[in-house]
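fyi for ur records
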Amino acid sequence: MTVHAAARSRPGRIVAIAVGLLALGPVPAAELPELPPAAARGLEVYRSTCMRCHESDPMRDRPGSAARVDGGVLTAIEVIPSMRGLRDRLTLAQIADVQAWLDFVVLLPGAARPATGWFVDESAPGRALFHEVGGGHSTQLVLHHADDGRPEWRRLVARYTGARVGVKDGLARPTGGQSLVGAWRPATPDPAPMPVGSGFATADRIGVQLPRAALGFARHAFGGSGAPIPANPGFPQAGFWWNRDEPGRGFALEVQGDRLLIVAYFFDADGRPGWLASSGAMASATRYAGRWQRATGGPTLGGSLRKFASATTDAGPIELDFETPRRATLTLPDGRLLPIERLH
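which gave:
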């Protein structure tokens, strides 16, 4: 049964609402998901606004490149000259609805939609992972602790082709790069990255296969609900952030509701990778003020399940002032102002 036949026999399904806009190929009717309200609203905006320039099937035209990319539609409106007029015509809520529609279109049965944001290892609290897909790659930042209890991180950048991640270079531990407040200096690449396998069991679960251990990460809910919730409209976008002139450190940021969780990953004075975290309610859609925390004594990458944060120390103030959901000014602990922006 084709999608269009399924629409006639199962009103209320996506293709019935889409009124024949998409030709997604043969899909069993029982597997066709219900169209979420946000996606339904986004479809109407897409039909009334976007189809003036684009094809009815977004996957056959440029809008498809914004699917599965957090903030992809808003980014396109901001950076593509011919689309900038839409910023005055559409509300942030309407832009988010169009994003929901595009995300839904590519979420075919059997494919896992990778979430952007924080994941935690439920078997070892204190081991965490931040994930984002951008530019055709899956980037994963894995937070853990070294054998001596110091916080460390490793990073995986791999080709993303669907539910599986095409790992090439392994889970890398570079050294010797830029500290949080220091001047830029190049990091030394890891000469022997840890070989791993990675993939998405569902949209909210990531599996990482290490040489001697299998880790499972589930989406982290920190927005005051039992499940992850979207950021409030107009609040900062989830993803990796950086300063393009000082690329030796980075920031992994997500907002759920009005609560922000950010990790700075950098290199300590002795060159080892280290990280700090800060979390709390934002004062507004454009401002966050809190304290950096340094946690020690947590679980190692693939071994000890020591209790997380057996010691947590204050590491100084953090202030974030957002000009847009993609650009901000970060006040570092030494008082210096650092412009940062979304990496993807």
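Residues 117-342 form one domain. thats all i got for now
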